[in-house]
């Protein structure tokens, strides 16, 4: 979730200038012909060994179906967006690459991404994608990427602790707060919290406030503060919530696996982690309890995008079409490390009925995607810096967030 604002106006100008001057993509050579052999470059960050094998399987399948197209897969293991920025400026970017929704608005604005709508055929069936995930890569009705996978957030709860306390899985946030009181005992807190904007965004806007307004920070809004105050009170008044570091853990999944929290709100990534690291913990998942009577959750998604300067656009689209089509997506998401953005694939793989993943899949249709304009990195950093101080009881929430909003907007103005 860590990111920083890297598209200053000078960089934006350089990126647009690179496109206008006809910089070539990451693959050298002449433009493709209909029967020519062609090599295209696909870049992304690394994954675990199982994910690496699944991607290789999908790429092998693609090459088998398109014998004239060779895919060179490049893994950028560190400072991914910084490296991509530099290569886009220098005309050395890959033909196809990963793009996180969080970074998408800023990159779309530069003009370095190829609009994809004209490549799409009816058979591709755009309507099959979960709409909030697709819309994260659109601007003014134009699509610049198709989401390859995602995760929402769900409530993870310890079945044994719930049974011993004689409580039911909460369906509203008020119920969650009350249940947390009964579950907090013997060194265990009721709820593990990740006090950061990427996890708090949907709660912050639950009373009608806006975290971002006119591309500026707006989280000092009284409605936002009111919506977030119960999280602060649950830790400092009820003493029934804690962050992972409070109990000596690194993150929510570890806190939950160590059984130091009866509940956490985490994503799909926690499922294989718990299976591998804490296989004896009996747990269930449920949709996040409603906030102010409404269902809500966060979604984090990544797309495949095409370099607008690529000289291999036809082949590049074929790769995107396959990897985000039903067949390629089924291969990539088959083991459940990532969830398919196509509803048909989720149903075929049974994830919509899966004991652990059904709640995560259900949230995709109403999720708030972690993306909102070019200034979200700046807004996020300032929110996180001050929200934690309020969460730890060091200062009032309203004071912390209003100061953070002012600082964020000063930085945006500069």
UniProtKB/TrEMBL annotation:
Pfam families: SBP_bac_1. InterPro entries: SBP. Keywords: Signal, Transport. Belongs to the bacterial solute-binding protein 1 family. This is ABC transporter substrate-binding protein. It comes from Sutcliffiella horikoshii.
